[in-house]
Amino acid sequence: MCGRFAQIQTRADYLDALASDLEFASALDTVPIARYNVAPGTHVLLVNQRDGALYMEPISWGYGPDWWLEMKRQPVINARVETAATSRIFKPLWDRGRMLVAADGWYGWKKSPDDSKLKQPYFIHANGPIFFAAISRYHTDKAEQNEDGFVIITGASDSGLLDIHDRRPIVLPPAAAREWLDPDTSSKRAEELAIKNAMQADEFTWHPVSRAVGNIKNGSADLVKPIDNPLL
Prior knowledge:
single chain
């Protein structure tokens, strides 16, 4: 799963990594976003494409359609790639609300096989910015944005990542990420991109980090730094 991640660099850094030919229509600055502990329920900058241009706008992490929330269920933060494209709750978002979460890495908690309460967080990252496949409900009209939200698409972990957690975010390389964003990309093709074009485990590295990341009040740059003597 993906329950915490880091969004550290500037908007310009992420756009350079995406390498799109489209105009960027949102405000562009070179100030680092510097969020080292992004948590569900907070607003996150997502990349979306509409009217032939790219935008980077804040959307709340977590989603539930009206009928879901009327049942007093909590918003969902992740969606499984195996079922998201066809499920009742996510299909409308998959068809019309594909976006990207620009990030620098995510946190995964490794559990002790002997004690489920004993967990060691790891920071998982690549060589530069990465892009999580996401789906969302988003209104450009601010009066309607209280209904908005997004979820991150996850897939089964493989190779060494399986030792940390059995699920991980679907990370798309730039070419696949650009195609994912394109409203002209069919839902079927988007499913192929998420399943067949996602970055593989051997393209990431990871290291143990402080358990302080478990507290959403903590947000310093130290959270992504390696620690000595991890619990697991």
